[in-house]
Amino acid sequence: MSKRRMVIAGNWKMNMTPSQAKNFASELYEAVKGKRGCDIVVCVPAIDIPAVVKVCAGTAIKVGAQNVHFKNSGAYTGEISPEMLIDAGVKYVVIGHSERRQYFGETDETVNLRTKAAVAAGLTAIVCVGETLTEREQGITAEVVAKQVKLALSGISADQMKKVIIAYEPVWAIGTGKTATAEQADEVCGLIRSVVASLYGKVVSRSTVIQYGGSMNAGNAAELLAMENIDGGLIGGASLKTDAFTAIVTAAQ
Predict the structure, then answer these.
(1) How far apart are CA 205 and CA 1, in angstroms?
(2) Any idea what DSSP says for residue 123?
(3) Residue 69 annotated among the catalytic residues of the structure
(4) Catalytic entry in 99, 131, 135, 169
(5) Interval 103-158: pLDDT, tens
(6) Domains of the chain
(7) What is the DSSP letter of 239?
(8) Chain-centre distance for alpha carbon 53
(9) Dist CA 134 CA 152 (whole Å)
(10) Is 97 an annotated catalytic residue?
(11) Contacts of 141 (CB under 8 A, 6+ apart)
């Protein structure tokens, strides 16, 4: 079996001014210094990227963005292109987060376009998938998540999958304080791995990093990260607290 390296990525969402981000990134660097057992990423608001990239330069912390457009230039007011992110020092980008789908019209089609553009430019795409509470209660989690994965990866080659991370984010567990049990999370992450296997074969599926992103925190990280199919976390609220995020990084060691 191919070894998979844990990836702990913080999603700051719409929080922290550039000066706050600079100070927080400095504190975080000191807190996680020496912890080399996993990849550490902070996905920050676009306006914070220059400040955080400067602080994290030469450290183990990589910087990610929270969205990317599928064109490198053009009349797309308010958007940011892959080339812009690359030039700014960004290495990762979150695509298709449920909040983007819920509030800003993101669709499976645009998730696919953004994913293809991101990996083609050399970014690592953290592609989010997950069911709503209604979909889980109706027993269609497997169908919903499998569809999202297949559509997101349409046109992505097996070789490009090296630049794709899939984050399972049950919508009902984001920002609600609710968390899937470790067994529930592992079951869906295992389903995602089986979908990747059906598309690309077992070698690719075994090396694909699949994160859990539904309210992972310092208290439940160790149990979740111990599961067979969970290779890290996309962390929301806990990523805004140095001690909580550091505890999750420690659990991933």
Answers:
(1) 10
(2) P
(3) no
(4) 169
(5) 999 999 999 999 999 999 999 999 999 999 899 999 999 999 999 999 999 999 99
(6) 7-251 (3.20.20.70)
(7) G
(8) 18
(9) 22
(10) yes
(11) 131, 135, 188
